[in-house]
Write the structure tokens for this entry.
Amino acid sequence: MAQLFSFFFVLLIAAAESVQGAGAGVGLVPPVPIGKRYIVGGADGWRVPPKENKDMYIKWASSIQFFVEDSIEFMYKNDSVGKVNKYAYYHCNWTTLAPTPPVKDGSSLFLLDAPGFAYFASADVKHCKKGQRLMLNVKALPAPVPSTDISSPPSPAPPAIAPGPAPGEPVMDSGTAVVASSHGRALMLVVSSTTLALMGTIRA
């Protein structure tokens, strides 16, 4: 008996340890990234557009619908990129009006964190004037669609109401009904006693 109890105790401890191990494994799952990530220019990357395709980045941006929380990555060599304002984008003028300084590490990632137009350009003025600049129209996140699933149970049906008396029919409440029933039983008892007494008299 003691050995059987010990066996079940060991099984219980092993089950508890396996549950704890499963919980620890769940905590190690990395979070899912928010939004989509795009490589600017696709396979062409970030470079000076050819003369015959100077508006290549305008075409690339027009083929994608960007939303807040998306991100764009610039891949380039011996070049630079930075986020600029509208004036710097159209005039290729890197001044104090540019929101961020240019970066030159070969890979630059920018988060689209606000709706509206976002502007990017190469810090090399000659490259910018040759079309190495990008303008995006970032849209706000769409509102969530309300759920049409009705999970609440249907409301119970109202209790049935007994039909009322017909016109001209006397109404009798419960007290009156009990008294009438008692009187009827007493009357039946008297009639039965009288009948038995009469039958005895006749037989005698």
Q: What stands out?
A: Residues 45 and 160 are 76 Å apart (CA to CA). Confidence is low (pLDDT under 50) at residues 4-32, 171-181.
